[in-house]
C-alpha cells in the first residue's frame, strides 16, 4: 500500500506520532537519518503498516501525491538540514510539516523560502509529550489554509478529543509562524502553571510543616475540583513516589532543586517584551528556574544573608490550604489572561487572525496545560470573541473578586516568613496594576523628560510637551 503520509525523525516523538497515525488505519512511511533507528522501529512493530526507507529519495518517492511529510527532528539547524535535503525532491503542492518545538521566526523564514518553490509549509506545535504523541496530542498547525485542509482529516483523527464535547484538539491556527507561536505561549503558560504549583507545595512544606504525603493528598483533592488539570494530577502522583535508588525518602527529596529548560518559555517572555505586553507571571516563572539553577551561589548566600526575624503562625491548617488553593486559581487566571493578551497583540502584529476561543478549545485535552479551566476560557471567548482580557469576562471577574484576598494574604504571610513566592506576587501585582486607573508612570515620564528631554503628554490637553527642568520657574 502506498503510504498516505511520511514521518521523518524516529526519536520518541516521531516514532510515537507515526504509530498514532498508523493506528487510525493509515500506511505510514518512516525515515531517520541513522537507519538503524528506522530498522528498530519496524522490528519492534512488525504488525504495523510502517514502510521504512533508508534514503531520503526512497522515502519521498514512496509517498502518495501530493506528498504529506511530518518532520519530527530536533528544532534548529537540524530542521534546516532536513529541508535542504528534501527540497530538490519535492513537487509543487506537497505539504511539509515541522512538528518540532521550533522558534516561530524560523518557521516564518522557512515558510517564505519554501513558498518560492510552491511547497506548502506548516509549522505545527505538538503538545503532550511522548504519551500524547502516541495516544492523542494537542496540535497547533500554522501555514497555508489549503495545505491544512490536505492534512486536516489525518490530524483530526490523531489528536486528543476533549471530554466535554468530543471535539478533536486541533484547528487551523493561522498563517506561517502562528502555530509555533501559539505552542510557544502554551509552553510559557506551562512554566507559569508549574511554578505556581511548586510555590504552593513550598508553602505547605515550609510554612505549614506538612509532610510530602500530606501534600500529595491535598493535590489529589484539588485535582477533583476547579483546579483539575494534568499538571496537578502528575504533581499528586510525583509526591507519592519513593526514591528508586532505595534511600526510602520521597523521590522529590532526592531530586536536586535546580530547574532546567529548553528555551521555549524564554522565547515566550522575549516575544512578550518585544511586543510590549506584560507577561509577568510567566517571566517570573522563567526567572525562578534561573535562580534555582544558581544552586552553589544560593547555598553560599544562605549562610550569610539573614532571614526575617518575625515568626509567622497559621491558626488553622485547613483554612490555609483553602487559601493556597484560591491563590493558585487566581494566579493561574492572571497568567492565562497575560498569555491570551500576548496572543491577541501578536495576532494583530503579525496579521494572524487568531481565534482565541478555538485556542482554548484545543488545549482542553492532549496538551500539558490541559485543565477544566480551559473550558471556562472557551466559554468566555464563545460569549465574546473579541474579549480584550479574560479578567473582563463575568465568570473570571467573579473569581478575581472572590479569590483576591487569598493571594494577598498568602503573599503577605510568605513574604513575612521569607518564603519566596515570585509567581503569586507577580499575579497579584498584575491584577492591581491592570485595575488601576492611575499608575505612578507620571513620575517615570517626568524623570525621562528631566534627564533626556524625552517629552511627556498631559492629562488636561492634547499634544507633546517638554518642561524646562533646568530653568527656575
Ligand atoms: C509539551 C511540552 C514539551 C516539552 C517542553 C519542555 O507541550 O508537550 O511543552 O514541548 O516538554 O519542551 O520544556 P522545558 O525543557 O523548557 O521545560
From TrEMBL:
Q: Does the keyword NADP apply?
A: yes
Record-listed E.C. numbers? 1.1.1.44
Query: Which pathway does UniProt place it in?
Result: Carbohydrate degradation; pentose phosphate pathway; D-ribulose 5-phosphate from D-glucose 6-phosphate (oxidative stage): step 3/3
Q: Name one GO molecular function term.
A: phosphogluconate dehydrogenase (decarboxylating) activity
Superkingdom, taxonomy of origin: Bacteria
Keyword Magnesium in annotation = no
Which reactions is this enzyme annotated as catalysing? 6-phospho-D-gluconate + NADP(+) = D-ribulose 5-phosphate + CO2 + NADPH
Point out the coiled-coil segments of this chain.
Answer: none
Q: Which residues form the 6-phosphogluconate dehydrogenase C-terminal domain?
A: 179-470
* Keyword terms: Gluconate utilization, NADP, Oxidoreductase, Pentose shunt
Quaternary arrangement and interactors, per the entry?
A: Homodimer.
Q: What does this protein do?
A: Catalyzes the oxidative decarboxylation of 6-phosphogluconate to ribulose 5-phosphate and CO(2), with concomitant reduction of NADP to NADPH.
Q: Which family does it belong to?
A: Belongs to the 6-phosphogluconate dehydrogenase family.
Q: Please name the NCBIfam families in this protein's record.
A: gnd, PRK09287.1
Q: What is this protein called?
A: 6-phosphogluconate dehydrogenase, decarboxylating
Organism of this sequence: Lacticaseibacillus hegangensis
Which gene is the coding source of this polypeptide chain? gndA
